[in-house]
Amino acid sequence: MDRNPVRQSTSSGTVEGESSEQEEQKTPSAAEYMRNFKNIIAPGNEASMTREFNPQVAYEFEKYLNPQKLKQHVLRSEKLRSILEHYAKESGTPLKQMERQARAIIDEIGLDRNMAIIRWCGIAITAIGKRICDGFYVNSASMANVRKDMGKCPVLYLPSHRSYMDFILMSYICYYYDIEIPGIAAGMDFHSMFGMGTMLRKTGAFFMRRSFSNDELYWDIFREYMYALVANYHIGVEFFIEGTRSRNFKALVPKIGLLSMALLPYFTGEVPDVMIVPVSVAYERVLEEQLFVYELLGVPKPKESTKGFFKALKIIDERFGKMFLDFGEPISVKEFFGHDSAQRMQRAGVGGHLQKLNRQEVELVKQLANEIIYQQQRRIVISTFNLLSLYYASQLYAQRSVTLDELARGVLHLKRIFEQLGAHVSTTPSSIKADVIDAVEIHSNILHFATGRLQFTPMAAKQLAEQIDVKRLKAHALCPQTMAVAVPMLALQLYINPCMFWLARPAYLLLAALKEQKNQQKQSTDISYDASLCALHAHVTTMDALFQHEFIIESNREAAEFETHLQLLLDERVVEVETSGRINVQDNECSHVILAALAPFLCLYYQLVVTLRKIPLELEFSNKELLVRVQQHVEQLLQQPGASASHVHPYCLALDNLNIAIYALIQRGYLVKSRDSGQMKIASTPGKCLRELETQLLEYCQLMPFAQYSTAANQQAQFHIAKL
């Protein structure tokens, strides 16, 4: 297994212990890498669901437990007995009653296995996949790389999470490649679905309550079940480190609760190591796309139900393109942490209710979680529609319409840029126009060609008013005209967001260069080349800190990435740094695309801060009250003819991103949130002045080369209002 510790980058731009020459030798070309993807539902490639299943187990034992014996193992363990005795003594409850309670909790949690149901599900997935998708593409080489290291220690599969299809695909692919289907952590909302809960359990799901912070007994029993699942069971464990589906198609801040539990057997010395497999899942079109857009605007999430599941099957009449699944280089926890066995053995035998990670261990787990998210994003395949959306948005901001020929050329240019950065792109240059036409057809609900030019697919405000009860919206009751503008713009932004892993820091660097160029124009004397680079690096670090919860790209590779991104901007003739230290920035297509990617996020943070500045310092407010204020403010700006002067974008209405920005301001000390009431107020801490932050964000917004951010949105608003 590859050692993937969090290591500092050296000044040469490579990771310590690895030369750039070694990197080149083991890194295949972009085209070679994409050829490793195999469509496993193509005619002739399908898996037989009736064949004998003799899988490679994740962790080899002399004797294997079945699901029922696993539960008995937990119930009879000394650790669980000490837990129950602890709670019986603390609460004055008879031990027998505590044991019955524990058995009921274990039965609620525990997974099961029924091969007949697994085979039936496989047949259904194959049939539905062939009908709605252009293929399930799996990187066979990376799967083989994972498989060769199996058997020596427990395995944790940690996929990115953009759709409910993620865990279905993982189980299907494990069956296809003869790997034991892992136990999958699932929420209790699935457990309560009639019929579906039982089916999921019998295909390997184990269930956890969304919140059990007030039920310490449940917490400890769940932790002991997870401990046994990792240390004493052979199938591997799968869960989503982001905790929930990302409705905006960006990586979320990792949640370390389940990861910490899963690593306890390692910290106690009961297992020699844990192998972590980051899994990257990408979709040309996500099944829940429309649902996510509505939820971002405040439409309540529908409750999971069996009736809702069958209602959702109407999607079989739609096209969703290709689905890509890639496996990252396995991470050895032992090598990542650099632990010795004596350190870990000190925990052995301690009761589960006393097991807590110390501060140093928590920090190590956080670093590991960030590395997992980083590796997930590196291998997410960028589709033609991702690049098309990015290019089209940049042209919208610049008030230009786009033809098929221009799109094809723009997408190929972006493919070259992304591959230079290290991304894997599915676009085929030899059939670029066909790829673009196909991508637009798949997403005809968002975009279409009219009179030879690409434009948004009209969405009537009347139709939205009929579909959505504005009284039930989570924040402000947005008017149908605003919704009609926001829905297609947010849908387009969803497909731009996966690109932000690659473009966020180049965008920071480009803004830094624009800012330094402006500063230098006011100076009469030259500065040194090194001083200019230091100034650029300082600006990038400042923006990294501001957007650290927005773009999860922390990895201690900043120095190497700074050099990579600077080289990209030099190669694309966007930035020139003279030997005298003078910085020159060119306004070209590459700079437009990079800045267009960041523009909606800058606008959102700016409008949030503008809204906060209108709130009296002494006033306390809830999260919902703040969301309502921001959405009201943004809606008013979008309806004004001169909205562009206010740096506004429909993305400023997205609740998930507003919540991320609010959390970022809390973490950075601009807002103070009460732990007890949840109420917030503006901080009066010295050095945390919202006015200064507003000025900083406004300066960044004004550096954008776009004459009007929201011209296209405003034109659409007028179009929809006229249709009413």
Q: How would you describe the overall organization of this protein?
A:
- With 724 residues, the protein is an alpha/beta fold.
- It has a domain of 280 residues: Glycerol-3-phosphate (1)-acyltransferase.
- Helices cover 52% and strands 8% of the residues.
- It is built from 30 helices and 15 strands.
- The strands form 4 sheets. Strands 1, 2, 3, 4, 5, 6, 7, 8 and 9 form a 9-stranded mixed beta sheet that branches. A two-stranded antiparallel sheet has the order 10-11.
- Strand 10 and strand 11 form a beta hairpin.
- The radius of gyration is 26 Å and the shape is globular.
- The chain starts with 19 loop residues before the first helix and ends with a helix.
- The N terminus and C terminus are likely disordered.
Query: Cα-atom Rg, whole angstroms?
Result: 26 Å
Shape: globular
In the predicted model, the low-confidence regions spanning at least 5 consecutive residues are: 1-25, 707-724
* Known CATH architecture of the domain at 66-285 and 320-379: 3-Layer(aba) Sandwich
**Percent of residues in beta strands:** 5-15%
The overall strand count is: 15
Largest sheet: 9 strands, mixed
Pfam families: Acyltransferase, GPAT_C
Keywords: Acetylation, Acyltransferase, Membrane, Peroxisome, Phosphoprotein, Transferase
Pathway: Membrane lipid metabolism; glycerophospholipid metabolism; Lipid metabolism
Main location: membrane
What would you say about this model in short?
It catalyses: dihydroxyacetone phosphate + an acyl-CoA = a 1-acylglycerone 3-phosphate + CoA; dihydroxyacetone phosphate + hexadecanoyl-CoA = 1-hexadecanoylglycerone 3-phosphate + CoA. InterPro entries: DHAPAT, GPAT/DHAPAT, GPAT/DHAPAT_C, GPAT/DHAPAT_LPLAT, Plipid/glycerol_acylTrfase. Helix content is 52%, strand content 8%.
